Amino acid sequence: MKRLIALLCLTLTVAAGSGTALAENIKGRLGITGKIGFYLPGDSDFDNYKLETDAGFIGGGGLIYGVTDNLAAEVDVTYTKFGAELVSGLDQGDFSVTNIAMGVQYRFDTPQPKLSPYAGGGIDILISDYDRPGGADVDPTVGVHLCGGLDYFLTKHLVLNAEVRGVVAPEVDIDAPGGKSGNFDPSGVAGTFGVRLFFN
Q: Which of these, 110, 76, 58, lies nearest to 196 by C-alpha position?
């Protein structure tokens, strides 16, 4: 987790240091994005036992719109699922998180017209579930994200994307049939690769 947070900071630093010039402009353009990748979640606890979580698969998509030469707005929805186990290795079921994220990007100009690094942030609505023997419910919550990424324009309309995104949110209650039984931490770091398609 610490290494991915460091990678996110490095990506943002590199993007912020980019020079000004001719990066592809998306002002006034609408696009759709599809992406897949991996998710490193925070650890949680249940019945006074610490739960260690596995890396999970993440996938989703959304919309992006160029507001100005350097500012873009985006909305996306991702879904991730990952296993949880006790320190002893005993399986404790699977968590899943649906993240509805709304944010903005600052897109940096570069001397390479096909490359467009960006940094951004926004608000996340996190809807979580815990699939385990005996059943359990997890409260929804709201968090924030920071991201850094890079778009590579194959053509004016077709773009390859790579992004690192960190989500921070408060722990929420895990409710089993007998009442509150633990805390779930929906925070984590995602690394994704995807494709954007601009319509205009």
A: 76
pTM for this predicted structure: 0.82
- State how far the Cα of 27 lies from the Cα of 58, in Å rounded to an integer: 29
C-alpha 52: how far from its chain's center?
20
Is-contact 165 147, C-beta < 8 A? yes
Q: What 8-state DSSP symbol labels residue 69?
A: S
For 67-96, the pLDDT digits (tens) are: 999 999 999 999 999 988 877 778 888 999
Q: Give the number of other Cβ atoms within 10 Å of residue 159's Cβ.
A: 22
Report helix, strand or coil for 46: strand
What distance in Å separates the CA atoms of residue 101 and residue 140, rounded to the nearest whole number?
14
- Looking at the DSSP bridge assignments, the partners of residue 86 are 51
